Amino acid sequence: MAEYLVATALGATDGTRAEWDTVDIRTPEKWRVEVKSSAYLQSWAQNQLSEISFSIAPASGWDAQTGSTSPDILRRSDMYVFCLLHHQDKQTLDPLVLDQWTFYVLPTAVLNDRCPNQKTIRLSSLERLTPLKTDFTGLPKAATACAEGTRQPPDFRDQPPL
Question: Is the model's pLDDT at 68 over the cut of 90?
């Protein structure tokens, strides 16, 4: 679901996703995007909300465009989009309601620099890396800012934090 939301926001829903590709989304601008998701609520019974963490492990990978496997262990994307289904009431939870999501966009270079061998990252640690935090409608601008290296699109400066 998270991959579909990000692909839709970035205009990258043409065709079928290549399973086992080295990145989750390839945009029309040729950005390689890795999408990770997490949620406080799960489908099973819970005594408490889930702790939020995301996988960021470097990996070897198969490239669907070249049809080859790379033995190199690394992160192959240009950016990560961390998708948090932040809603915390199980009775009204609906992943199709876009207002129940928060998105964090971060250049892969920041992870490579600050967390080179780390396999997972908690939300609090992610926030210390100062990703662009946005809602669904802000995803295209956040991704553009990330890809251009500005990491702070002008429209975000005037908006209150989510």
Answer: no
Domain of 90, in residue numbers: 2-157
CB 66 within 8 A of CB 76: no
Report CA-CA distances (Å) from 89 to 58, 122, 132.
34, 21, 25
Decide if 133 contacts 36 (C-beta within 8 A): no
Query: Collapsing DSSP states into helix, strand and coil, what is residue 159?
Result: coil
Question: Cα–chain-centroid distance for residue 50?
Answer: 18
The count of domains in the chain is 1
120-145: pLDDT as tens digits: 999 999 999 999 999 999 999 999 99
Local structure of 5: helix, strand or coil: helix
What length does the chain have?
Answer: 162
In a domain, residue 162? The reply is no
CA 27: distance to chain centroid?
14
How crowded is residue 4: how many other Cβ atoms within 10 Å of its Cβ?
12
pLDDT score of 18: 67
pTM, 2 dp? 0.88
* pLDDT, tens digit (0-9, with 9 covering 90-100), for 24-47: 999 999 999 999 999 999 999 999
For residues 48 and 54, the answer to whether their CB atoms sit within 8 Å is no
Query: What is the Cα Rg of the chain in Å?
Result: 16
